[in-house]
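Quick note —
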Amino acid sequence: WAMPRARPRPRARPRPRASRRGLGSARLWRCWLWRCWAGISAWGQGGIAALWLRLSRPRPRPRPRPRPRPRPRPRPRPRPWPRSRPRPRTQPPPRPRPRPRLLPGPADTRGAAAPAASAAACPARAPPLGSAAAGLEPPGPGAGGDARPGALGGRSGAVSGPGPSAEGRVSPAGEAREALQDRYRLGSLLGRGGFGSVYSGTRLSDGAPVAIKCVPRARVQHWGELPNGARAPLEIVLLDRLSSGCGGIIQLLEWVELPNSFLLVLERPERCQDLSGFLAERRFLPEEEARGLFRQVLAAVRHCTSCGVLHRDIKPENILLDLATGQLKLIDFGCGAFLQDTAYRQFAGTLPYSPPEWIHHQHYHGEAATIWSLGLLLYHLVMGKHPFRRGQQFIWGRILFPQWLSQECQNVIRRCLSMQPLDRPSLEDLFNDPWLQGVHHP
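Predicted structure written out below.
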């Protein structure tokens, strides 16, 4: 028997010897590491030494800065009546202006005496408008008043006396010979809107308070024709139509055409406040008081309709309240238009008081839109807020009333705020409503 041969064991592989290249790279790595460390140490020692030398140097003391001397404030100089802009030399010389054309009116009664209340409550005579002692800012070029003092050429309508005459018409119209600043003293700014600025004023002849409205010519969008054939802004034409027969509408005393603007002198009660400010102080009014004020507004609107005038911007801001007598006056006919039977395709007024047919269909009828604005005004009087406003949005829907408000007043508001224009009452039906009967006028 042959014995099995034992398998030979595998020989161990010899370890590879380190090559000269590997030994050289290891020595180079140690060399570079030592050099980097030496460089960093040298840089650090040098930086520390440089910092020590820098800190050891004596610092120069800073010189005190001289205090600036306060500049003297310039004294405010009183501005004269707005002057016209200088014309370039390249333009030809201006043509001579025609003779002033005036508003129609009765004979001059400049010597008429003012009411005793106005004369008693009037302070001492103030310096004339535009003088150095007045010290009040007149309407500047931004307000459209660009005319030379005393140069009141062009068309004008001059009226004297404390207000409208006994017949209810615009008081005497005469030639505007004396300058406007010689007859009125300009006061502070009362308000500013899209069609112009309104300033308080005082008539120097009798001390009666007036309001001077400055309308730039560039902002006049609609023009009309006066009965004498003169062309004027539509607001002046509408006020001329409404100058008689109703005390609830602001009266136009005088108007003057300047080169770049129109000045309207309107009546102003001595103690007056717009209805929005009056409601802001009292939040809302009792039902009896709101009914009396609403009937006055309704009478003024009915007079406008009978004269063929549509206000188109009935809201508390455009209603002036005489705090002494409690009488209301409808103001600001800048958005007004002639009344027409067809629908209006262009909106003018305040968007939150616009009817829903304008928002949905972009057209509205004059009387239906007026009834809608009157309903919003009545709700604002008794509730102190807009009926459809929720935050910053207007949500058309159900009208909420408190329990203390009478059912008759709620019915009037619901009828005026009907979503369908045909469901709203007419002005005569609204004026003859039982809830509005038996109101005492101031």
